[in-house]
Design a protein that fits this description.
With about 70 residues, the chain is an all-alpha fold. Helix 1 runs antiparallel to helix 3.
Length: about 70
């Protein structure tokens, strides 16, 4: 794996970890979610968007490996 591919793989790993964490947050009610961290004001992402992002990052990792 060349250095650019290695860096891309590292970024995809971080993105995947973040998306998996957001899937856990998606199960929390609003009050509990707001207590997890001092979030800036924002709309919570829909679960299907997070799942789609996770699916896409896995596809990208497969393409990079293949």
């Amino acid at each position: 794996m060349n250095p650019a591919d290695k860096r891309l793989n590292e970024l995809l790993d971080k993105w995947q970890a973040s998306l998996e964490l957001h899937l856990k947050y998606a199960t929390l009610d609003e009050q509990t979610y707001r207590k997890v961290q001092p979030w800036p004001p924002h709309d919570r992402p829909s679960r299907w968007i997070v799942e789609l992002g996770l699916q896409k990052v896995k596809q990208l990792k497969q393409q990079l490996a293949g």
